[in-house]
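Thread: Newbie trying to understand structure tokens

Hi all, I'm a second-year student working on a class project, and my supervisor (Dr. K.) asked me to get a predicted structure for one chain before our next meeting. I've only ever worked with sequences, so writing a 3D structure as a token string is new to me. If someone could post the tokens and maybe explain what I'm looking at, I'd be very grateful. Here's the chain:
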Amino acid sequence: MKNFEIDSFTYELVCDGEPTDAALSFARGENTLSVFLTATADRPQFVTLRWRFATEEALFVLGDAWERSYGELCFKKLGENDRPMPWYFAATDMAETCCFGVKTQPNAFVCFTYDRSGITAKIDCRNGGGGVALAGRSVKLCTFVFARFARPPFESLCAYCRQLCDAPLLPREKIYGGNNWYYAYGESSFADILRDAKLQAELARGIENRPFMVVDDGWSIHRTQGPYLPNEKFGDMKALAAEIKKLGVRPGLWIRLLDDVSEELTPEMRILRGGKREYLDPTNKTVQQYLRREIETVKAWGYELLKHDFSTVDLFGSYGKDLTDTVTNDVGWHFEDESKTNAEIVLDFYRLIKEACGDMLIIGCNTVSHLCAGLVQINRTGDDTSGRDWDRTRKMGVNTLAFRLAQNNVFYLADADCVGISGDLIPWEKNRQWLDVLSKSDTALFVSCPEAAPAQKADLRQAYLEIQKDHAVQPVDLFENCTPEIWEIDGARVRYCWD
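---
Reply by user tm_fold:
Sure, no problem. This is what the structure looks like when written as tokens:
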């Protein structure tokens, strides 16, 4: 990218019809470019910016992901990097690393492609699957940031991410403990959770910073659907939180906010997409009140952490792995409030959750990475690991830990997902390594474990002690391996055998 100049670009604006009054303006700073959009009658959909310049050097390129990653992150040679790159990318010849992307909490979704003749940035400013009705309003879509570093690629990416997020929301203490999903997979009970919490208390004995016990999906009357009332296996959720606290463990709870079959939530309060009305429309005022009430109920029960899930797929109809350069594959639909962009709607939704949670910690899962930065303390950076399939843990867990570690404690506290312990379905020699690197990565550490053998308990206990410390960690073989095996931890190199 030696010939790249942020001021030298062309652009195109696409609206529902031929543009008549939509207009773009730009504000230039030192290595930054802010993009503003105004429209009255027009309904803008996309803005495409193109920087034309020749790249002759041999480069490796790494992009980010829309929400969670799905084991696909890796450095690729320029010319072979055909995957669109949401939010930002890094390009390196090993001696110099250039990074280009947008600041966190933009008011539009932004995706990049980079080829030998230049860079294209596609700004998705739609409402739903159609143009946004700004009605004379001017909106700042995003701020591009370009940076060049004469340092190793991983260090460069860490430094660059710090330029993108001005106000992260970070927990005050290390986050660790239990989560029941990766052994129970929704089949659990009040008694099971108390057993798990007792194990967490035992493993964390003597540690002032207390562990969490997160009750994942399976506790409510409808699997993955509201209304979020306890089923007969759980009974009194307030009593469960109180019992967990008596053990010196902090209770947390999973919830899916936008999928709810409550009769009071009429079809008109749901998103109309593809001829169906399924998921709640967060721009509807009654829905907003209902969501606040659901969260406030969980808080009143005594839970100190809320893990909210599935919102990106519920809002836009697809998981990140099924998206290309735009945030929704469905066209011709809108939210009830058509005056805001999709990104503005997501930001408002996250802000509502944050306000309703108050002092509760928030884990975002299936949340949009660049939009939740500053609005959640903890974010799941990759798709599910497993308590049954080691290859899934290797692919999803190790990959996201390595290639999104630069965002950790910069955008939020990263959560690369759990160590799933379900009998001997996964050899302990594999899970033990995953546990070890997580405990030294300064990210969140959650373990799904109903019971543990003495040797496992010793390893878990050591991991819980390790996570209380500050470590310097980075993956080493990023260019040879999508699931890096060599890690530098506190100045020493450690090799893990994932295969």
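A couple of things are worth pointing out once you decode it. The chain has two domains: 10-164, 176-495. Residues 10-164 form one domain. Feel free to ask follow-ups in this thread.
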